Automatic annotation (TrEMBL):
UniProt keyword list: Oxidoreductase
The Aldehyde dehydrogenase domain, residue ranges: 2-434
Gene3D superfamilies the record matches: Aldehyde Dehydrogenase, Chain A, domain 1, Aldehyde Dehydrogenase, Chain A, domain 2
Organism: Lentibacter algarum
Lineage: Bacteria, Pseudomonadati, Pseudomonadota, Alphaproteobacteria, Rhodobacterales
Protein name: Gamma-glutamyl-gamma-aminobutyraldehyde dehydrogenase
């Protein structure tokens, strides 16, 4: 890791990438996107072998998304202008956007290529060098991406991918005095340690995208309950629930509670769980045995606290190997229950009934997280009130999940700070430099 950071520092200081004209950097980033699309199946299979995401989803969410992200920032990089300040007539005030220097990026195992691109593309677009550490259990696709970047013409030393344990390689990256900014997606516990490492070293800026316990609110006047159930089921169960924005808390207006839970259970029970490389699979594997055991522990605790398992709740054994869990729906969950408050990161949905708009907002905001949310209603005024009242980085209305590079993704409260995606992501990777020129 120390050698990688030193290589990134040398590459930044000698300007081999930083000083390349924007048209040159754009050409390289577009070539990276071209090669990601060329190697899309290989990249997807490498990722699936690591993390168990169902192939059809991974092809779109990993390689497809990563290529689109590199193209977005390739097109954006030469459209980021500085400013001329409204100063006195005898002074010229200029505001430049300068690259921060060496960026350290630590990404998780659930969507390594997609999330890696969210960090890499804007950082590289702005002329920075990057040292990337993948998760211990999902590095294959990012190692392949490093080779793709070299093939596309990214100069040596500008991107460095270093595998290793978080407690060793990740700590070394976060403590380095030669890293100017650190970006991370993962757990709150690790995020706290990264802030401590910044304080212990060079006070590098740290941007964190952390966990979520996202509410998905269904009102009795939802335009189509059957559609809401179908979309909501995938909003929690796709990738075995291993999605940071997963709608893991279902809040249902009491008047349609039983009907909607029945619809959700029917959707959950017809999902095919199995080998993620089987093209008919809809829900793939849990990442690891510790993750599976943690998921099952949440269910056991919920049942002990008085919840009821409507469907699922157990492990599914597969001859193909891997760790699989049945999509699970728990009803009778109250705000004080463990499964209501804490992120499972598995295919476990908690259901809580409510009677009023104010109660729905109160329940939605009753955790330490604020990453994502969903609202299903035909009442436009209510939808706007919900968007205003719910503390979350993104609020979906009459859908759950889905967005593109034009809008930011980030959280509030203990879901983190800073944003991935959109032009706002660029703010993490630039310094504002003022030139004050006496005329």
């Amino acid at each position: 890791m120390d050698r990688a950071v030193a290589a990134a520092r040398r590459a930044f200081e000698d300007g081999r990438w930083r000083d390349m004209p924007p048209a040159g950097r754009k050409k390289v980033l577009h070539k990276i996107a071209d090669l990601i699309e060329q190697y899309a199946v290989e990249l997807t299979v490498l990722g699936v072998r690591d993390n168990g995401t169902e192939f059809n989803m991974a092809l779109k969410a990993e390689a497809g998304s990563a290529a689109g992200t590199f193209r977005y920032y390739a097109e954006a990089l030469d459209k980021i202008y500085g400013e001329v300040a409204p100063t006195a007539p005898d002074v010229l005030g200029l505001v430049h956007h300068a690259p921060v220097g060496v960026v350290g990026a630590i990404v998780p195992w659930n969507f390594p290529l997609m999330i890696g691109a969210w960090k890499l593309a804007p950082a590289l677009a702005m002329g920075n060098s990057v040292v990337l550490k993948p998760a211990e259990t999902a590095s294959l696709s990012l190692l392949k991406l490093a080779g793709i970047c070299a093939e596309a013409g990214l100069p040596d030393g500008v991107l460095n991918v270093v595998t290793g344990q978080g407690a060793v390689a990740g700590e070394a990256l976060a403590l380095s005095y030669d890293v100017d900014a650190l970006v991370f997606t993962g757990s709150g516990g690790v995020g706290r340690r990264l802030l401590e490492y910044s304080a212990r070293s060079n006070l590098k800026r740290v941007y964190l995208e952390l966990g979520g316990k996202s509410p998905n609110i269904v009102f009795a006047d939802a335009p189509d309950l059957a559609k809401a159930a179908k979309v909501s089921a995938m909003g929690i169960f796709r990738n075995s629930g291993q999605v940071c924005v997963a709608g893991s808390r279902l809040l249902v207006e009491r008047a349609v509670h039983d009907e909607f839970v029945a619809l959700m259970a029917a959707e959950a029970e017809k999902l095919k769980v199995g080998d993620p490389l089987d093209l008919e699979t809809q829900i793939g594997a849990v990442n690891s045995i510790p993750q599976l055991e943690g998921n099952l522990g949440f269910v056991e605790k919920a049942l002990a606290e008085g919840a009821e398992a409507v469907t699922g709740g157990g492990r599914i054994l597969q001859e193909t190997g891997g760790y699989y869990m049945a999509p699970t729906i728990l009803t009778g969950v109250e705000r004080g229950h463990n499964v209501f408050q804490n992120e499972v990161f598995g295919p476990v949905l908690s259901v809580t009934a409510f009677d009023s708009d104010d109660e729905a907002v109160g329940l939605a905001n009753a955790t330490d997280y604020g990453l994502s949310a969903g609202v299903w209603t035909s009442n436009l005024s209510r939808a706007h009130r919900m968007v205003h009242g719910i503390r979350a980085g993104i609020v979906h209305v009459n859908t759950y999940g889905g967005s593109d590079n034009t809008v930011p993704l980030g959280g509030v409260k203990q879901s983190g700070n800073g944003h991935d995606k959109s032009l706002h992501a660029i703010e993490k990777y630039v310094d504002l430099k003022t030139a004050w020129i006496q005329l």
